Amino acid sequence: MSSETQVPGRALPVTDLSLVVLIGSTGSGKSSFARKHFKPTEVLSSDFFRGLVADDENDQSASGDAFDVLHYIAGKRLAAGRLTVVDATNVQTESRRQLVQIARQHDVLPIAIVLDVPEAVCAERNARREDRAGMPRRVIQRHQRELRRSLRGLEREGFRKVHILRGVEEIEGASITIEKRYNDLTHLTGPFDIIGDIHGCRSELDTLLGKLGYADGMHPEGRTAVFVGDLVDRGPDSPGVLRRVMSMVKSGNALCVPGNHENKFGRYLKGRNVQHTHGLAETIEQMDGESEEFKAEVREFIDGLVSHYVLDEGKLVVCHAGLPEKYHGRTSGRVRSHALYGDTTGETDEFGLPVRYPWAEDYRGRAAVVYGHTPVPTASWVNNTICLDTGAVFGGKLTALRWPERELVEVPAEKVWYEPVKPLASEAPGGHEGRPLDLADVYGRRIVETGEHGRVSVREENAAAALEVMSRFAVDPRLVPYLPPTMAPTATSQVEGYLEHPAEAFAQYAADGVERVVCEEKHMGSRAVALVCRDAAAARERFGVDGPTGSLYTRTGRPFFSDPAVTEEILGRLRAAVGEAGLWEELGTDWVLLDAELLPWSLKASGLLRTQYAAVGAAAGAVFPGAVAALEAAVARGVDAGELLTRQRERAADASAFTDAYRRYCWTTDGLEGVRLAPFQILAVQGRSMAAVPHDEQLALLDRLVAADASGLLQTTRRLYVDTGSPESVQAGVDWWLEMTGRGGEGMVVKPLGALVRDGKRRLVQPGIKCRGREYLRIIYGAEYTRPSNLERLRRRFLGHKRSLALREYALGVEALSRLGAGEPLWRVHEAVFAVLALESEPVDPRL
Amino acid sequence: MFLTISTTGTPDRPASDLGFLLHKHPDKAQSFGTAQGRAHVLYPEANDDRCTAALLLEIDPVALVRKGKGKGRGGAPDAALAQYVNDRPYAASSLLAVALSSVFKSALRGVCPARPDLVGRPLPLRIEVPALPARGGPDLVTKLFEPLGWQVTAEPVPLDTQFPEWGASRYVRLVLEGDLVLAEALRHLYVLLPVLDDAKHYWVSPDEVDKLLRAGEGWLAEHPEHKLITSRYLARRWSLTREAMERLELVRLADLDELEVEQVDNAVDEQTDTEDKPVPLALQRRDAIIEALKASGAHRVLDLGCGQGQLVQALLKDVSFTEIVGVDVSMRALTIAARRLKLERMGERQASRVQLFQGSLAYTDKRLKGYDAAVLSEVIEHLDLPRLPALEYAVFGSARPTTVLVTTPNVEYNVRWESLPAGHARHGDHRFEWTREEFRAWADKVAERHGYAVEFKPVGPDDPEVGPPTQMAVFTIAENTSTENTSTESISTESTRTESTRTTKGEQA
């Protein structure tokens, strides 16, 4: 690409991000040239650096150090993406080699501009300069000789543009034209429809384009199609696909980046010797009937493809095999290679295929990267990247992404056009979305990034405990997309006889600036999460499981019922209610994830009830009658034990109140007869997390669900709305709680009406505060906790750690839901879910 | 907690002499501080005909709880919630035995300076303990007290009269009647109350053996149940070490599901298949595994689900195994395995051959790649069936050792176990047990899907009708699977890549 410019006034194209190397002997006017055409900060002059390190711009002995610093700064500028001009003689191959190396290191183009000025002119100029007047003539002569020798080989040295300016006149007349990089299409804002790997599936492509709204290669709303490459090979009609794509690109309706298959096919078309493997043979055969003219067009098309594009003001990067952020907008063989082939670990998997380095898992870049190359069963976002190769040619589907809408549009493959070497999905959890869960996703000391609460860390010992429980007892992780967080109780009450009282909860929310709260009845049962799919097909499609239509699990992810048939029976009833209430359509989903309480408590806690709660009641019930009778007899004899007797009577009453307390939460069930489920939040549905939906809207939906349930399974959650700023409203809340707990209710949870709420300092407020009833707390603090001497000591409890834990777990739960809602792969959802379980094993007073 | 001691008498041998023997005046209520509360002694009746002494121990439930560290984590306590709702304030446990021995110290020793004549004389005694925790139920209570000369009434206390279906509690109302020397009677209670309670318990002093010998003097050695009494009494010492090993993280997760920690931290049973008493079938299994490993020529071996490390220990004895890795999901198992192997005291050369680490076959794990062989001995049946595909992929798809050995019980053989009730699994944590046909079907499918060949071998006596007790599958990776693909794909990728770098010339991006 060298231009032997003869005509004065010729413009020299210079790429906007490049390393411009000026080449010319001393006195050839490089510094003047640089000053004239570039910003002073863009120019790194060797003279200047000699001055910096040696106080003398002409001290040749300082050259080594000066170039060290110059190269260092050039590197920093290029890393930051800034055009850089090196003003030094650069007449020696070695000095240029170092600069080309620096350009390559930073994946920018090296450009050479040669100032070829006659020796006499140089000498005359130097003579006029006081500091160079003494320079021997032979220095200039040597420079000139070296320059001559260099001229022919500059391209071979790696310079991608070489401009040679001969003579003073030409130099004076030249101008610099800054050109954008070919891959820089930041000015194009679309909207785009980015289309995954086609591999000759022309019919599917036509169907997809039709579904996207294109007619005859044009979109009526002026959208632009972007092809991620691998148009050809394996499939039935690669020429047809090429014809379609080429015409769309030509007419300006589409952009296209090359895939590795185009690259290889292009080399074949140029007559290179390539193996006809991986579906190339099919393409060659299909091209047989095509005209030489078409073949030439294809060759030219492939030759002109740019490895990746930066689009939409830098918000979008499209390439074939994915690209780390440091390569975005860069230009080098390495970048091109990465864009076409991706990175591999050097290992091969059980199918003999190279193991791809999971670059997307490390990606933290600002731009969304949309790519293809690696067939995945379903396209899903990972760290703002998405792979659209959904294996159309292998019988999967052809997928497009609407940008900026971020909607996926798919058409299924018409058949398996080409037998895959390895199945698209493995059966292990996560396999249906690309890769199964890996221990590194959850194990050891870890930090999970949450959208709502920053980085949440998990300690190793807690992850170890969670690993054991999750592995040995939990439901298939695909069906555990959420675990409920812990909840902090209200600040300790000073009201006589009470440890907890709602006044403190209302006051805390008022202080947090939360004006409106909802009080929700606490159903004393067992916390349950229900994932309800519309049918087995939806469960397979969305969660990758074959058989179950959902799950019903505890706070540690255990199944509630060991018999899957019972779970299915409950899911069936839920499903019927969701359908009857019209929520599938209204929420646009084929599954719902519900947070609920399963009643009665005795259903799941029966073991603990027998060994612990009822046992304590039984022991107390057996011991007190005799003890009180003995004391009464002693007192009747005149023994001074009146006080002791009174106290035992009180203790007996406490113990009996304790028995009453747990009995309220127990009843006999027979199969599902007597089992109730009280849903209080819809956590997520297809395509979105519902965590931020205000609680009144949530409850309105759930009321309809409960009303639509004909089976008697579902139970409503009673609630009262309170204005924390209104004393009357607060009093009404307190009265409601007193009335409810007076009748033996567990208590209530006070939540900010707006669900996901922040305080004046933008900190997350507690998502809920529990206020437990006075009688209920006997189950927690023991039968005799209300005795004044006990209560006084129990009031010294510390809530700080519990509150912090509640917030961290809540943030993780919300994170899991938003990843689930955004359709992220299982390992991303599971990472957050697992962290909730791990945090639940942190030490905290279990009575809180 | 409460008990009464009654006796009857006549004017010349008044029942109220009981007061002398107990060193407690019948007309006074006396109270004594104990470690966990206050003990009170008083007499509901005390005359010539009848005299009853009552011991009432008031436990302070708030002080009872174990203390943790730090604000909010402790200062308040931090282990299982269960300990706060505790039967200790009501039931006659070791706490009552301790109170008994301190309040009636002299009586227990049979010392009565005021009336030495009373000491050795048997009295018509009636002892009532209204709430005695009795593991083993009324039958065991009778077996323990009857040989000592007591007439025993032990009535089970119902758990909750409102829920008769819950059945009886672990408490009995105990009445002992008989003519015995008071000191002996007290010593019986002192030893047998905690033995019956059998709670893994706390406040045990290190000189427990001495105490048992002293309190058991004259009766324990001859007692037909002395072995059970001794082992239960001293087991409480063992429980101290167990408590030290208790993993609080798991305790908390059990709590979250309202389960007892034993229902969660139950991956290994330290009492079975010990070095002293190996289970014969387990030995045969290990022999069969080692033989199969040697036949496969494996040197670097994974023991996936190594449990207490029995196989790792056996493999270490054979120098042809140069690297042995034990993996288990249970930290308790790994701790026990490390102790069994004496890992900390092992010489460097030996130690360099062995590694133990936590892992889970529900996840793929890079650390498991590249081994010659993996053993899954009695592992798969501890997984819920729906989670088995994850294990298959983690082992056969991801780790991909050359050889995989899988052993699992043959459920058909269960009819040959005399002690096993029909229809019961061999182990509480077995989620399934397979017939030979089911196992083969599974193994064939796995082998086909992941490119292995599989053979089956019996372990233990191969019964002509029901087969062997243990079945083993030996998977060997198929030599030619996709190796061709490997080379072509990787080579072609490499070559295209170099070429592509060359061809970038003349093109900017």
From TrEMBL, chain A:
It comes from the Bacteria. The keyword Kinase applies. Residues 465-843 form the Polynucleotide kinase-phosphatase ligase domain. InterPro entries: Ap4A_hydrolase, Calcineurin-like_PHP, Metallo-depent_PP-like, MPP_PrpE-like, P-loop_NTPase, PNKP_bac, PNKP_ligase_dom. The keyword Transferase applies. Residues 191-377 form the Calcineurin-like phosphoesterase domain. Keywords: Kinase, Transferase. GO terms for molecular function: kinase activity. This is Polynucleotide kinase-phosphatase. It comes from Streptomyces polyasparticus.
Automatic annotation (TrEMBL), chain B:
Residues 1-248 form the Hen1 N-terminal domain. Keywords: Magnesium, Metal-binding, Methyltransferase, RNA-binding, RNA-mediated gene silencing, S-adenosyl-L-methionine, Transferase. Residues 302-387 form the Methyltransferase type domain. Its EC number is 2.1.1.386. It catalyses: small RNA 3'-end nucleotide + S-adenosyl-L-methionine = small RNA 3'-end 2'-O-methylnucleotide + S-adenosyl-L-homocysteine + H(+). The keyword Methyltransferase applies. Residues 479-509 are annotated as: Disordered. Residues 479-495 have a biased composition (Low complexity). The keyword Phosphoprotein does not apply. Pfam families: Hen1_L (PF12623), Methyltransf_12 (PF08242). Its cofactor is Mg(2+). Residues 496-509 have a biased composition (Basic and acidic residues). NCBIfam families: bacter_Hen1. Belongs to the methyltransferase superfamily. HEN1 family. This is Small RNA 2'-O-methyltransferase. It comes from Streptomyces polyasparticus.
